[in-house]
Write a structure and sequence with these properties.
The protein has 468 residues and is mainly alpha-helical. It folds into 3 domains: 14-106, Fumarase/aspartase (N-terminal domain) (Fumarase C, Chain B, domain 1); 111-204 and 219-360, Fumarase/aspartase (Central domain) (Fumarase C, Chain A, domain 2); 368-425, Fumarase/aspartase (C-terminal domain) (Ribonucleotide Reductase Protein R1, domain 1, Orthogonal Bundle). The chain has helices at 16-22, 25-28, 32-48, 54-72, 85-97, 110-146, 166-191, 210-217, 226-231, 234-260, 288-311, 326-346, 354-360, 368-377, 382-399, 408-412, 428-433, 443-467, and strands at 151-156, 159-165, 193-194, 221-222, 268-270, 350-352. It is elongated. The protein starts with 15 loop residues before the first helix and ends with a helix.
Length: 468
Amino acid sequence: MTQKPWQGRFDKPTRQEVEEYTESLSFDKRLYKYDIKGSIAHCRMMAECGIISHDEASEIVTALGEIQREIERGEFVFEPFYEDIHMAIEHRLIQKVGDIGGKLHTARSRNDQVCLDMRMYLKDAIIEVRINLIRVMEALANLAEENVEVVLPGFTHLQHAQPVSLGHHLMAYCEMFRRDEERFRDCYKRVDVLPLGSAALAGTTFPIDMEWTAKYLGFSKITRNSMDAVSDRDFLVEFLAASAIIAMHVSRLSEELIIWSSPEFSFVEISDAFCTGSSIMPQKKNPDVAELMRGKTGRIYGNLISLLTVLKGLPLTYNRDLQEDKEPVFDTVDTIVRTLQLLALMLPEVKFNEERMESALESGYTLATELADYLVSKGVPFRKAHHSVGQIVKYCIDSNKKLTDCSLEELKQFSKCFEEDVFEVLDYRKAVERRKSIGGTSFLRVREAIEEIRQHLSMLKEELGSKS
């Protein structure tokens, strides 16, 4: 029977139940490209340093390339006996080239090997997430540009507050996703650290060249402490935390689309391509995609908490608990990438009901602040102006009137400072247009924000194009 690489110290074989419980090959086999790439780099480095011969290195590298092609053609047999992708590939390598293949593991351990694989995998995943965030922001900017001059009630406490530009509302989400992209860009710096050469925990006695390996694999930094290198999963936690914040932002946007598509709001119509029907009620059109985006947020939160819980009690250095780092990360990568891809496809097919939004402005006294600001412009202290307008709103509610229905004589009952020019402020579009403070909702400011984000996204695409 084939022995495991570590079998020498053991008298009894591993029970099958233990093998089934401890194997990670069923899920870490997705790391095969990174494991082979890292092994090729390690092999070439050892040849450069005289640890193995160039002929041996050439034979190993050729065989590793053949193994990668076997995996990609579906010919490779993933046997759980070999525990993980690292041992499975090493076993196949030894099958192909004999004892020379056994030299590949010189000056390294599975401990630094798996850290290397996860870092290389995550570097690619971060770039993919950033690319999809850019697509979402582009979709939002396009929608915002189409709807700059559509006015709707802005909300606080889910109550009508003040009139705002729909473009401004959409650009608020653009700002959220922009922060997300910045977080991932920053996270990348801490992922981009080479651990290979740390070996099991103490480094190696062989004359390796970690700078050579880092340059070959495209790492900008090298770990400073071998014990930290093999036990560190902070970079994964940071990725999961940044993903959880993205998911929260997607969930907030989804929630608004769900609420706004209800008959009570009727602000939006989500394309049929992103909705489903009911098995019993023929009239139903359910915003299921948005609901699942909202729902999967909890799953991503759970992955973050899962890894934090694994790590919280671990002594230095490597412990087998760390095998539990992969599934939460893989699941989060898959979920967040698919979610962003779908969101970028769904947003362009959202149609806004402009008339319904503007008619909703009439029902919530959203121009009350305009009246208060008007009184302030006439020299009334804001708190006094606030009180007077509050009384006007109560009068309108009791009289079943809109603010715009009030005559000058009615307004003067609450403040003698009202004059004929007050009616100039009782206009929703003008109310929006007057808010020209930086970051405000005026049409001018919204167009400036859209132009600025387009320039920013163009710069990001150029940067990412050079990395991919």
